[in-house]
Amino acid sequence: MSNYQVEPADRPQALTKETLKAMRHEQVRGMSRRRLIRTSLAAGIGLWLLEVSAGTIGFLWPNLAGGFGGKVRIGTFTDVKNANTDIPFGDGFPAYYQDARAFVVLIDPSRQEFLPGTDATGDGTAENVRGLYQRCPHLGCKPNPCIKNFWLECPCHGSRYDRLGTKVKELGPAPRSMDRFSLTVDAGGVLTLDTSRITLGPLPVSLGQPGLEPPKSPTGCI
């Protein structure tokens, strides 16, 4: 009878201290769990920074391009009148400018000009011109100027404003008058609206009270 004992080749063998020490100091092949976590975290932060940068550029782009959100050149009284021959701008009817998202309106039609000056509040009385933000203060719809009565009428919920943007207290749910843009008229009579600076409109005015221009017609457009 033989004294030899056959050992299976695939039986697990205990690791010596030297082998364990070598494995601890040996560089891991492939990607470790720690490296995977760090890489994923760095990629997430990089994506977030990219989105923030893109959003910032998108917000500042109008300022860089001279569009809404920055200073928008409108022109002289004559420029506005000649560009809006289909409406009676010289009589005080509001003219719309898409680039500024604003209605430009002559305050005193008896004076056919814009007067040099700057008004950060957007009132524009001294400059004889006002720039009104196109949004209704109620829910943001765009009021439309009505050729019948020269008022601005919101088609969404019926808020109405006189031609200078003053809210008619009894008509519609808007809580205030239309908001106004800061404006400048240079020495040459050129109007520029600063659409980055908005002043909230004043409180509504009741029918028949001072501060509200009466309609030119008893009926409106809506």
Give an account of the 3D structure.
The protein is α+β, with helices and mostly antiparallel strands and 222 residues long. The chain has two domains: 41 residues; 134 residues, 3-layer Sandwich (Rieske Iron-sulfur Protein). Helices cover 22% and strands 19% of the residues. The strands form three sheets. It has a four-stranded antiparallel β-sheet with strand order 1-10-9-4. A hairpin with a 4-residue loop joins strand 2 and strand 3. It is elongated.
Give the helices and strands, then pairings.
Blueprint: H1 17-25, H2 33-65, E1 71-75, H3 77-83, E2 95-97, E3 102-106, E4 117-119, E5 129-133, E6 144-145, E7 152-153, E8 160-161, E9 180-185, E10 191-199
Antiparallel strand pairs: 1-10, 2-3, 3-5, 4-9, 6-7, 7-8, 9-10
